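Re: duplicated header lines in exported structure tokens

Our pipeline writes sequence and tokens for each protein into one text file. With two proteins the header for the second block appears twice in some exports. Here is an export where it did not happen, for reference. First protein block:
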Amino acid sequence: MRAIPGAARAYILGAALCAAFCLLPAFRAGTPWRAVALLAALYALCEMPARCRVLGRSLHGSVPIAAGSFFPVLLASALLLPPAAAALVAVPGALLGRVEQRPRGARRIWRAAQLSLATWAAARAQILFGGPVALGGGGYGLKTPDFPYVLLPAGAATLAFCLVLATLDGGVLAAAERLPLRTAWRGLFVRSLAPHGAHGLAGLMMAVLWRSPYGPLSALFVLLPMYISCWVFAQYHRESAAHQATIRALVQAVDIKDKYTRGHSERVGRASVLIAQELGMDRDRVEVLRFAGILHDVGKLGVPTRVLRKDGPLTPDERRVIELHPEYGHEMVRGIGFLGEAREAILHHHERLDGSGYPYGLAGAQIPEFARVVAVADAFDAMTSTRSYSRARPVGTAVAELERCAGSQFDPDMVDALVRALARHGWQTAVTADEKNGPPSGGRTGAAAPVGEGLPVPAPVRQAPAPGPAPAPEPGAARRGLPAVPRPPAPRRAPRRGRA
């Protein structure tokens, strides 16, 4: 369970207070309670199947994002009722809907406040553009709608509804994830405009049928297409869940084969996301870049296990086999369409800015942007992770090494973005399963590091002698085809235990 941060809780409380203030006029005389009760019950019934296990999940672990599928009921309420009464329609369905993540109470309150404010704004907008007259001919009485003039207030209501939802969503994202407002709001309104436009049209149809001689019962027929669209939407999310499961399976296979880098792929994905967010990438590209970071070493599945787990320096032939893993990975994922730009990052994440990398020796802007991001994230995690053959460097030391190699091995813009992200979010270093069983001093002293870490060529660093066995060599250089730091030959030792 990820608790909602304090700033997001304060934001939710403020939204709830604003919603309560907007609802107060509904409890005065003149509220059409029968219509409010019918629409509220209808929305609650529609929300129960809509808030299924697939659709009810938040796309951001700590942020409760609205994911309702039956906004037409709320938009119809905005056209049929006064603003306070229309806002009240959203409350029962929002409070009763399924919530998978905890704390459930705070998430239900947020959803109720968010939808109430959006519906209230929609009702205000349609009044401003003459909605009561256009829909009913003279107020809230039963009269013939005035087409096409009625489309103007309906469109204004939909735009207001969409804008308020996007604004509130971006605000809670900024509060919970500590994102700049511009980054949190980027693309929210534009992406939601088309689906909310369809919901607005359905809401207008409901409102017209509600006011027709056939009465409220006829408005129920508008919901049938929405149930169908809900099913299609659920199928899309099931497909997305299948994609995620495929990626997890590939990563687990890599971790099993190369246990010395267990968990490395997930952390590279996380660091890549931090860099992308600092660069202001759209959320869709950020998600694809996360896939790139997670799958960057999937080509290790095509490398013989004896080479990956070999102790000591590699032969030239073995090094050439190791350097094929980006191409192996690209071949494995080339048919997975949803990965998009991630495929190029998997192929080119070992290219260097000065052209001395592999597999194709690309230089500068020839290297895809995603590959330049993953290269920095890969090297950073390799330096800050404790392995059986090497102790983790402090974050500051790793950052200094990245900055030293910026412009030759790494893109300076990507390094700067990572530095800013670390200052904003921090970084929790990780240990592997091997470290849990004992300190690195008992590991592979003098052994070459596993391939694929993307480490910069280290500069000699003077350190005070430490008690105990000699420190392990700097990882990564030997298996990447880079000039390795000279080191004494590995001492003879007893056979490995528990490494098979």
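Second protein block, exported in the same file:
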Amino acid sequence: MRQPKILTTLKTYDTQQFAADLIAGITVAMVALPLSLAIAIASGADPGQGLITAIVAGFLISALGGSRVQIGGPTGAFIVVVFGVIAEHGYDGLVLATLMAGVLLLLAGQLRAGNLIAYIPEAVVNGFTIGIAIIIATSQLKDILGLTVDHDPADFLEKIPVLWGARNSFSAPAFLIGGLALALIVLLRRLAPRFPGLIVAVGIGSLAVTALSLPVDTLGSRFGALPQSLPMPSLPEISVARMLELFPSALVIAFLAGVESLLSAMVADRMIDGNHRPNAELTAQGAANIGSALFGGLPATGAIARTATNVRAGGKTPVAGLIHAVAILLMMMLAAPLAGYLAMPALAAILLITAWNMSEPHKWPEYARGRRSDLALLLLTMVLTVVIDLTVAIGVGVSIGLALRLSRRRSVESDWTPPDR
């Protein structure tokens, strides 16, 4: 079934549900605002493009999606791919790749491919997710330690020596601000999990930089002013040669968007005892990525952390996601100049927490107790993601994982016998 969930929920919608959605939507917007900025920066894009993605894609995912409470926008899963595409093909290349990925996701939704997620080995998903988390955390060391580097390479094996070589430029004020923001995020999550602790932590850290005139980079000093309105939609440069060149990147973006959104919808189902529509979700992801690309935004998908925040804040229907997108738009229009004071180490602290949560350390003992083959597949996928390339990691991991699954089924269930020759 590809019908958007919002059409079902609006049949019985009332003022009580709207009140709950309003509070939840504003709460999620307070979380999504600094996170969208930080993800865009880590991806090698301008911070304003993160906000554009959260607004346009976030609105479309809620309006067209198959989950009652899914919240969409830019996520950490894309950072590695986006950074690589921008470095190799420029930002216009990323926009075209995102547009192509959106078309692929639309086709996947129309072909009812939503249930195929069951065939992707869980060890592969866990492996590349942990690998991405390692890369994200490493990419934030420069800002949280206040290091000065002439060139910050994308490759993990090249980045580590560069960071080590810049160790003498360590900035104590930057480290203290980053540590303060990190401690506040952790503390507020434990004491008041429904409270938008991210924006409070970043705000307090940034206020300390301004009040004490600390020599710490801010969003404004590094990137200039944020946009205060959405740009006019436009198409990137399109040619057959360019599309062929970017097709592998578009495939990876579409794969990540599909897997992440469906995983997030499954998590949401467990939290609300619901039942999402996977093909409607894929269709929504396609429309969202096309929309984001037309406005010059980043790839987008369902965000597990923001979706969970929405549920905990009392969100009942997709209207909460629509309100979240509108709230971010209003904040961009009214408070963009204030965002220029946000301290870079405080934003880096957000992504360090994001990386830690992505890696799901509470599940590591479970992985270690599982099948040896699954653990080996997880570690292989993780290492390939970090050391070589996410595309290679997914391709190798899925191939080996499906082969392992096939061999297990044959060893247990198959009555096939070799032909007598």
